[in-house]
Predict the 3D structure of the following.
Amino acid sequence: MTDFQPQIVAFCCNWCSYAGADLAGVSRFQYPPTARIIRIMCSGRLEPQFVLRAFELGADGVLVAGCHPGECHYISGNERAKERVARTKELLDVLGVDSRRLRLEWISASEGIKFAKTMDEFTKQLIELGPSPLKGES
Amino acid sequence: MTRIKEIIEETGAFDCVECGKCTSLCPVAKRNKNFAPRLIVVKAQEGMEEEIKSDKDIWSCITCEICNDMCPYEVDFSGFIQRMRGEAKESGNLPNCSQAGAVHTMERMTGMGQRQKRLAWITDDLKVKDKGDVFYFTGCVYQLGILYSDRAPELKQVPANVVRILNAAGIEPVVSDKEVCCGHDLLWSGDEESFERLMEQNIKTIKETGAKTVVFACAEGYRTFSLDYKDFFGDLGFEVKHVSEFVLDLVKQGKLQLNDGGSKVTYHDPCRLGRHMGLYEEPRDLIKATGANLIEMASIKEKAICCGVNAFVNCGEVSKKMQVDRMLEAKETGAEAMLTFCPKCLIHYNCLLSSEKKPPELEGLNLKVKEASNFLAEKLKGSGANQIGKG
C-alpha cells in the first residue's frame, strides 16, 4: 500500500481557487501531483452529481475549492457550494464512501501556499484512508 | 435491426390499429401538441427504426400507462418505450436527467462492492432482525431524502416509520445494508446493464435472509420486483407486498390500531402503484381505517393525473403543467394534506410547491404533500413518530 498514489479530482472556482492553484505553480511551491483540476466558473456551479460521478469513475478523493465566504464573485455561490457539499457528504457516508474523501476549502487567488498545503494534507489523508472502496477488485 | 423487431413483436406494438385513443388520453400529448404515442408506434410499424431511435420524444413519455390501460388492443406502450430507450441510448440519443443525473449515479453507486451504511436511519427504539420471514426493502427513500433535503426532508423518516408501524403490530422486519437500489430509474432510463447487476445482488441478499415476504413502502420498488424482476427470474421464491396491503391485513386482523382525529386528507395514486399494479383500494381503505376523512380528487384511480416525471428524465414545462393541474384538483377538495406512497411523486410536487416563483393559480394553496407511511405512523397509538417537517 505504500506506493498507493490517490487520484484526486479538484473542482476549483475560476476567480479564486483556480488562480490560487496557478499562483502555487508560478511560485514553484511543491505539492504532490495527485490532483486533476477542473475549472468551474463558481463553486456554486458544483452539483452533487459532479462529486458522485467522480467517485463512480474511481476517484479516491474530491476537492471543492472556492472563494472565501463573503468574497464570492457572484455574491453567494460559495454558500450554495457549502450547503451542497454538506448534503453530498451525508449521502456519501450512507453509500459507504467515507465523507472525509470529499473536502471543501476556501482558497483565494493570493493563497498559492494554502493551495499547495491543502493538496499535501489531502493526499496524506487519502493515503491513510487507502483506495476508494468503489474501485474494482483489481 | 432484429432487436427492434423483437421489441415491436413482444410489446404488441404490431397490433396497433391506429385508433388514436392513446394520444387522445395521453396527459403529455394534451399539454404538448408535438407529442403523440400513436405516431411513435406507427413509425415503428413502418420500420422507421433510425427515426425512433433518434427521436427525443422517446424521453418525453412519462410512462404513466394511461395508454396501456385504455388501448383496445392491449399494446404495451410503456414497455415499448422502456425497451426503445435502451436502443436510443446506445445510438447516442440521451435523456435530460434532473440534477444532471445525480439520482441515477447514486443508484448505480449502491452496488459497487463497498460496504454501505444504508441503515443509518435505525434508532434504538426500532426492532429489526438479520434473518426472518418478513423483509422490509427500504429502497432509496432515505438517500433521496438527503439528496432532496431542500424539498422533501420527510423522506428520511420513512424507513424508521415503516419499521415503527410493523413493530407496533408485533413484527420485527429484516433489513439489510447489503440491499441495493432496485434499479427502477436505471431500467426506465435505458440502462438495462446496471439494472440487471443490481437486480441480481438484491435477489441474492433477500434469499440469504430466508424471507418469505418482502414489503415495500415505495411504489416503484414494488412494481419493479413484481413485474420486472419476475420477467427475468420467473418465480422469485418470495412474496412481494406493498405496505398498504400488508398493513391493511394487520389492521383487519386486529393486530394494529390506527387513530386519527378525522383530519381531511386526499390520496394521490402513484402511477406505479395504481395503473401499473392495480392497487387502488388498499391504500384508500388503509387511510380510511385510521378514521381520517378521505376526500377524493376529480381524477382518481385509472384516470389519476401523474406527477409528470418518470425516472428523473425530461422534467420540463409539461411536467410542471401536470403538477399544477393536480394541485388545483387537490385544492378543490379542501384537504389539509395530499397523501401518496411514492417518494418521487412527493419530490416532484414539493419541487413545484417550494419553488420561489409559484404559478398565480396556486396562490393561497394551503396544502401539504405527505408520504403516506409517515402519515400512518403518526396515527399509531402512543406513537413516537417524528412530526413531519422536522427533517
Notes: The mean pLDDT of chain A is 94.
